[in-house]
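Here we describe the complex-level prediction in full. Unlike the single-chain runs in Section 2.1, the two entities below were treated as one system.
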Amino acid sequence: MEMKYDRILIRYGEMTTKGKNRNLFVRRLRQNIARKLRAFPRIDIEYMHDRMYILLNGEPHEPIIAKLKTVFGIHSFSLAMKCENELEAVKETALAAIRQLPYRGKTFKVSARRVNKQFPYRSEELNHEVGAHILRQTDGLTVNVREPDIDVRIEVRQDGTYVTCHDIFGAGGLPVGTSGKAMLMLSGGIDSPVAGYLAMKRGLEIEAVHFFSPPFTSERAKQKVIDLVKQLTVYGGRIKLHIVPFTEVQQAIYQGMPNEYSLISTRRAMLKITDALRRRHRALAIVTGESLGQVASQTLESMYVINDVTNTPVLRPLVSMDKMEIIEMAKQIGTHDISILPYEDCCTIFTPRAPKTKPKKKKVLHYESQLDLAPLLEKAVNDTETIVLDEQDGQVDEFADLF
Amino acid sequence: MMIYLDNSATTKPFPEVVDAFATVASHYFANPSSLHGLGMKAERLLRQAREQIAAMLDVKPSEIVFTSGGTEANNFAIKGVAWQYRRRGRHIITTEIEHPSVAEPCRQLEELGFEVTYLPVGPDGRVSAEQVARALRDDTILVSVMHVNNEVGAVQPIEEIGAVLARHPKTLFHVDRVQGIGKVPLDVKRCGIDLFTVSAHKFHGLRGAGLLYVRDGVRLTPLIAGGGQERQLRSGTENVAAIVAMAKALRLALERYERDIGRLRELKAEWLQALAAIPSLSINTAERGSAPHIINFSLPSGIKPEVFVHELEKSEIYVSTTSACSSKRRAPSKTLLAMGVGEGRAERGIRISLSFDNRREEIKPAVAAIQQAIKTLSEVTGSHGDEV
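The structure predicted for the assembly as a whole is:
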């Protein structure tokens, strides 16, 4: 019978350094991977302290590899074959492993590691034996021990020998959920989804908060945000989206504040509401897509005045990035094309013609004290609608019969 | 009892597909670009159709451009590449047996100063990857080869050609999959295909919908300019109902493939056997390397193929003279000529094309009717077999 790759070996990311907490991390990663691969019921996941194996049990490896690339906490992974700790078996397995690659015209080397010292051949002997066997049995393959195209890695362990030929880089980072939970302020623009992605990469579970101002913003703008969260579930599994009815608050600010201060006050109101939702949903931080100096509300002066409403940590993963870098990342993670759809969000509609770029905190507080926003903010929090999105769900499908 | 054997001309729409079309056309009739909720529903339908079709074709949704059908998609692929990359080169390679919707755009481009190499085919109706390799030049911007020939069913070596083109990253590869989709599988990635054409009404969808796959990274100059639909590539209000119907038709057709492809292959073998038993017919479809649903044969000399079609029609049996598109013109079959069967035989080609709905019980009465028609018509014209 033709020998095939029967498992995927997964190497952990940074968490290998996390001593005591490692068990928690590994279990969470396993859980995230299992969720991700729910569509492949036959696989089994074996995990140990330093690596994980996905036993394919006949499931196809290409789609599984594609999915693994989106799971945080994986440093790299490889297709692998396992065999008995027996020289002939190791030779045949290594040969079969390399034959499944487009190897013609390439160079290779064998790197054996003998973890199980009972195995009667030393690593160098194994390198030689297996290398010679591969050379004899293939055409168009040559040895290069310095910079090989294909590195045939052999690990002789207690439970058997594992052969891999090709490492694929994972998404890196920490398993989502191992760093706690944060609220993501999601506008529908290019930046905030990227901020959410980066937050999840550092192991945060996120819940998204979106401000919705009908009729000034349309159902399409809302659908766009739902689509963005759906795209983020590729990396985060299951994400709650809180949609805050914001029209009344926005109108009150717009009518009650001098025009050039309405923007900053709106931002403060958003952060207050988000913080209230954060308490309610037991998160410990707020993530935003703010970067420094792009628009009026993102000058350091503005940030200072906005941030004044809470002492909850506000994480700004994009603060050091250039716009071009953010756009590039948005493209990579698949949110860019959704973000650029031209529907108004609540930030663009009420933008004053000349917002203050250096607002004074004292003045903002003074004007706000003349408004009674608190009941409106509370009402907005109470009337917030929550949707749960899951990567695995299909469309919420009123059209099912048509397809 | 009607026996419909002209499925390569068009297929009978699945009833579920017609229902879906009617529902969308009557309830979700809004323009997908309209801002209101009804427009949004139409847009979501369009998006869902795109996602479903992309998943079934194993490509990305952003790589699908909906068109009015196969002809437009083929025109767009060829002219779109020619305009976009005309500074890179002005040489195109195609075959002598392409559908007119590929061949004619190539002719138009020749008039505009492009050079086109038309590769000949062997007696089995196939080109070879070596021919493509030999024809390639530094200024070749496009190779366009059909997957399944519409007249005789020859399956072209797309994967081998793709392997040749893998070494020429500046030459784009277009494949007309109109006849092959749902009948002969094709691995787009493995074959290195940059563009391919699909038409809904060949797999029990409706006319008015088709698509061009445009691989991410390939740029095309739009042929139809206007409101910027289809990511600026193909303007015109989207035909949402027909596109949704196409998504459904493709799903059903691929399900039929999974279930019935073995049966269809057996059916074709039985047809070939039954036709081979009629000594005055010459079979033009090779047994190997041909699609499971197309059979081409030539009538004995002296019988005009269009008269033969009408004669069979009297028994409610529907076949084609070579390809339906060209059957109103009296001309020898281009594909048969290219295969080298000679002009006489090429003028007398008849095509039988099957779908998963055809049954083996049809073979006996249809073959009997074919024999009877040959007999009747030979008596009328009084000539038989004086020319091959």
